[in-house]
Each structure stands twice: as C-alpha cells, then as structure tokens.
Predict the structure.
Amino acid sequence: MITIAVIHGPNLNLLGTREPGVYGSTSLKEINHTLEQLAESLGVNVLCQQSNHEGILVDWLHQAGASYSGVLINAGAYTHTSVAIRDAIAAIQIPVVEVHLSNIHKREEFRHYSYLAPVVIGQICGFGPDSYLLGLRGIIQHLQQHN
Ligand code: DQA
C-alpha cells in the first residue's frame, strides 16, 4: 500500500496558538487527523511526524527514502535556510511535495526563496490546513500516474 511520510518542521507543534492571524487556529493534531481521514478515504497510509531539529528532519527524509512511497513536507523556516534538507530531498528517490499554510510569496522577502522548491515535484502554499490536503492529493495522483 502507498505510504506517505508527512514531515512537519520547526514551530509547527505550536499551531493553534502560534500567530493565529497568519497560521489560523487549527492545531497540528487536528491537521494530522484530517490527513489521516483523507488518506483512509483514498486507500493510502500516512505517517505524521514533527521535529524542531534540522538533523532529525534529514534523518526522517533518509528513512522515508528507504521505506515509503513519498513525502509531504512543511519544513517551516528551514525552507528558507537549509541546504541540508534540500540535499536530503535531492538524495532520495521518492517524490516530495512542499507545503506551507501561508502564502510565502506574499510575506516578507526572506520567505520568498525556498531552497526546497527546485528539488520537489511541486509546492502548495496559502490554503491554510488545506495546503496539506491538496498536497496529499497531489502526491497520490503523481504516484498513481507514475507507477
Ligand atoms: C510556513 C512558512 C514559513 O515561512 C515559516 O517559517 C513557518 C511556516 C508555513 O507553513 O506557512 O514556520 O512554512
């Protein structure tokens, strides 16, 4: 069965109370629950994980590359800083989709550049928690078309 690793990066554990004007009031637990429900309805599995530590995110990408079908990642602020996460995505052989709750392109200039964008199959941003659901649908469709 298709299994997608959902990887949440730094500060996303605080969703619900973190800058609600930017990120909304939905908690990470609720986002994961909705993703699990959508996955079930699509007949796939998701494994949701969150870490504030760059190296752990790199380790999870390597593990996903060895064991799973694809990755949905919101790398948070590491999106705009991390060559290590970009290189980990480039190193693994499975498709990766980048998601963001906010539209990073209409925020501060330092958020406009994503180190990940050139090595993922696509980026979805600006739809709040629905960015994750759209991302999951996108990666499943990609996998079904390419397998
Ligand atoms: C974010 C956007 C990033 O710029 C920010 O650092 C985050 C969250 C988003 O989901 O909108 O932590 O990835």
About this structure: The mean pLDDT is 97. Residues 3-146 form a domain with the Rossmann fold fold (CATH 3.40.50.9100). The pocket of DQA is lined by residues 11, 74, 76-77, 79, 100-102, 104, 111 (CB under 6 Å).
